[in-house]
Amino acid sequence: MNFRPTIVAFLCNWCAYTGADLAGTSRLHYAPNIRIIRVMCSGRIEPSFVLKAFQQGADGVLICGCHPGDCHYQTGNYRCLRRFKLLEKYIAQMGIEKERLKLEWISASEGKQFAALVNSMTLEILNMGPSKIMNSLEVEHLKH
Amino acid sequence: MAKLKLAIYWGAACGGCCVSVLDTHEGLLDIVAAADLVFWPIALDVKYKDVEALPDQSIDLTLFNGAVRNSENKHMAQVLRKKSKILVAYGSCAYMGGIPGLANFFSREDIFKRAYDESESTLNPGRVRPVTKNVMKEGEIEIPEFFNDVYPLSQVVDVDYMIPGCPPQSSRLAEVFMAIVSGAPLPPKGTVVGALDKTNCDECKRKKSENKTIKRFYRPWEIEDDKETCFLEQGVICLGPATRSGCGVRCVEGNGPCRGCYGPPPGATDPGAKMMSAIGTMIDSNEPEEIDSIIEQIVDPAGLFYRFSLPGSILGRKLL
User: Fold this and answer.
1) Cα–Cα dist B300/B306, whole Å
2) How would you class A28 by CB atoms within 10 Å of its CB: exposed for 0-12, middle for 13-18, buried for 19 or more?
3) From the list A79, A136, A137, which residue is nearest B281 (CB)?
4) H-type helices in chain B, by residue range?
């Protein structure tokens, strides 16, 4: 089977999304497996967003925010970091490999780093294979 | 006015929900004055075939408690859906999967292995496992099929309303029941009734500061509760911020932290995710290593945050 991973990425408006934009305007080539969702701040990303992405079949979820100390709203990225750490522990208990969830800091000038990050994460997930969630959720469907 | 027809049934349940109906005390007399109980296995000897023989839509109200764990639960859920005008998921198990739903951390095979091979009190050299059909000389017997997953009622049949709680507060049940009897306009289908629309923290009387910070988590037995400060501010995980109010904050009033049996507050789909979000705000550190060491003190986040709600949560079960 030709497996093409789907990676859902939540990028903060001020640093990470601008960084991704820079990758685009700089005409950098990188893996097309990423589906970007722009949020105002990485502190806006609720754990339920990430879980929902996995439930809908994402093979990986990438969260990017401003570097520590650089948050446009001062502390949003720290909140994101703590929630990420909790989520990491939770998804491991639920049988989702923790490599499928990544948090990285990308500044507005780091278009190159963003492209490299997407490439390396895509490759890593390509090697891991698809997420098991679809099999697990379709074991028994009682209503139909 | 003709009396209402009321049915109460249990799926994968402990019996506590049925007892909570009895706990309406004298209120039960009002219920019985307004309704005939046509089916209630804990109290009345009515057979399944009698229920199956009822005309469709002939039961006005069915309170279904317990999760759906096996084919018998599923069958009765389908029968009662057909026979009832209003079907209510009564209690945490029917609403979100409840305590039996914690079995979704395992597969059917894991559970059978533990129960029929490994448990300390089991001697089963022939590795006998339950089978659904057994033929013997007296005839054929059939036992329900044990599903791989535990389901909340709404994943199996259409549910009109949910009454949360483990068990639901009896006084709330009496209120809901009397509202139905009085013929008052009913809320839209799918509404959580018998509960309030805020979180437990809004109802809790303990002293709270504006700025909650946690440097170290304690399990309840590791710390002496001062009986007046917010549990979270003392470092004990309390699910109040991620739990719908309506229970009267009875656990905290009894000096125990909230465990989340009333489910997520309105607008939140996943109680555990809500709790992770809340705790993420409170952890008092910005350093990855220190955050790791603080989070390490939460021994079992999945079991703690989803104690009553695993099957009804976003992921629903441990992936196989």
Assistant:
1) 10
2) middle
3) A79
4) 16-22, 27-34, 48-53, 71-83, 92-96, 108-113, 170-181, 200-203, 250-253, 271-282, 288-295, 301-305
Separation in Å, CA of B157 to nearest CA in chain A: 6
> In this complex, do A132 and B301 lie within 8 Å of one another by their Cβ atoms?
no
pLDDT per residue as tens digits for the range B68-115: 999 999 999 999 999 999 999 999 999 999 999 999 999 999 999 999
Residue A45 confidence class, pLDDT cut points 50, 70, 90? very high
φ/ψ of B254, rounded to 5, equals -90, 15
E strands present in chain A? 7-12, 34-39, 60-65, 101-105
Give CATH for domain A7-137.
Answer: 3.40.50
In the three-class reduction of DSSP (H, G, I as helix; E, B as strand; rest coil), residue A78 is classed as helix
Contact indicator for A71, A77 with CB cutoff of 8 Å: yes
Provide the Cα torsion B116, B117, B122, B128; round to 10°: 50
User: How is domain B4-99+149-192 classified at the architecture level of CATH?
Assistant: 3-Layer(aba) Sandwich (3.40)
